[in-house]
Amino acid sequence: MSQYTAITFAPVQGFIEKSRKLRDLYGASLILSYLSQQIVKEAEKTTKVISPALPNVQKGMPNRILLQGEFTESQVIDAMLSAWKNLLHECRCWIERKLPQYEYHWEREWRNWGNYTWEIFWGTGTSVTAAMQDLENRKLSRGWTAINWIGESSSLTGTDAIAWYKLGAEDRNPNNRKWRGEKNQIDDFYLDLAAVIERTGENVPEGKFLALNERLSIPELVKRLVTLPEIARKIGMTTLDKGFKDIYRRPEEITEQAKGRWTGWFMGDGDKVGDHLKQLSETEIINFSHAMRQWGEDFSKTFPTDLGRVIYAGGDDFLGVIYSDKDKVVIQPKSAFEWLMTLPKKWQEHGEKITLSVGFVWAGHSVPQRDVLQHCREAEKVAKSLGRNRVTIRVVFNSGQYIQWTCPWDYLDILTKYQDREGNSNWSHIYSDLAQLEARRAFQINKETFDEKFALLFFDIYFPGEGKKFRDYNFNKHVVGFSDDDNNYERALATIDWISDLIKVGWQLSN
Q1: Closest by alpha carbon to 363, among 267, 266, 262?
Q2: 490-503 pLDDT per residue, tens
C-alpha cells in the first residue's frame, strides 16, 4: 500500500508582510522558496515528489509539498532547520568578517532565531487526500514553541530587537544602561554596515541598500542581506533580478506629483485549490503542479518591466507591484487598471479549471509598505467572501482611510463604459452628482420602504443600459455578490453600496 506525505510550514504571509522595502519583500520570497527547495531536495533522495513540480526552479517554489513515500517529521524538521540555520550563519559571519573592529555578543540571539522562527506541519496517509487531511488536522493542534524573549523594550531583545554587535550582551541591564552612549554605538555600527554593503569605503553611503536612519531586527537584516549576490551564491539561493531598483515613493519637489508617487499592489490566489486537488489523481496533480509553476514562471518573466514587477509567483498565488523608480515616468492609476483588465486572460493560460480572486490596492506614498500588504490580503479575502472569481480594488489614502469596490472579472469592463451627460469620460460629473445625492440621503432606504430603483436609474444615466440589467436577480447576485439567504432589504442595500463604491473607486482610478 502506497504511503503519502504532505508538508508545509508557517508563518509565510506574516514573514512576507513584515517588510519595509521592496528589497525586503524579495528577500523574504527568496528565503521561503529556498527553504521549500531544500526540503524537496532532501525528500527526493528517498521519495517521489508529486508537488511542487519543477523542483530545480527555486524562485516561486510553493511551501506546500506532497510526496509519495515516507518522509518522517524529524526528516522534514532537520532538512528545513539545517538550511535556515546555515543561512543565518552565513549572514552573521559575513557581517563579522566585513566589520572585524567590533566585539560581537549576539550569537545567542541568532541561534534563537534559528530554533524558533518556523512552525513545521507534517501529515501522512495511504492516499493523497488522506495525507492532506491529516496535515490539516495537525495544523489545528499547533505545537509551536516560542522563545521567552528577555527585556522590557524591543530595543533590548525581542522579536523586533535592533540587530547590532552588543545584542544579547549580559551587561545590557535596563537599570544601568547608558542609553545615549548605546544609541551612538548603534548609529556608528549601522553607518559602517551601510558603507560596507555599498562599498563606499570611508565615504558616507547613499542609503540605497540600507537607509541611514534604519535600524533592523535580525530577520529584517537577513531579508536584506540575502539579496546580496555574494551571500546568495554561497548558500545556493537564487540571486536578485538584474536591474532591480527599489520603489521610489517620495514626493517630488517641482513636478505636479508634489503629493508623492502612488503605487499599485496586487495579490492573487486560485479559488478552492485544495478542493480541486482532492478530485485529481496522482498523475493529474503532477500535471496541475507543473502547469501552475510554469505559469508562475512565465508570469514573472513576461510582466511589463516598465510597469513594475512580480515579487513572487508560486503557482496559484502571486504578489506584485506596479511602480516607477526615480528615473521613470510616474505611473497613472488608469495604466494600472488597464493592466488589471488583462489579468483574467493571462490567468487562463495555465489551462487548469480554477478561477482567480485578487486584491488590488492603489496606495498613497505615505502608507507604510507593511500596511499596504495587509490591505492586499484583506482585499483578496473580501473578493473570495463575495463569491470568488473576482477582484476587490481598494484605494488607500495617506490618512489610512480607504474605499473599495468588488467586481467579478467578467463585468470589470463596466468602468470603461462610463460617459457623462456630454458623452465624455469625465468622472468628476458623476462623482459630484453622487456626493450631492448622498448628502441629501437620496439613496437612503429602510426596511419598510426599501427600493433601489432610484439608484439604478441614476446608474443608467452614466452607464447607459447597465442599470436595467440589475433587475434580473441572477445577474444582480452574480455582480454584487449577495447571498440567497439575504432578504430583499439587504440585497437592495448591497446593490446601492456596490454602485456607490464603483463611482468612488472609478473616480480615483480615472485621475
Answers
A1: 262
A2: 999 999 999 999 99
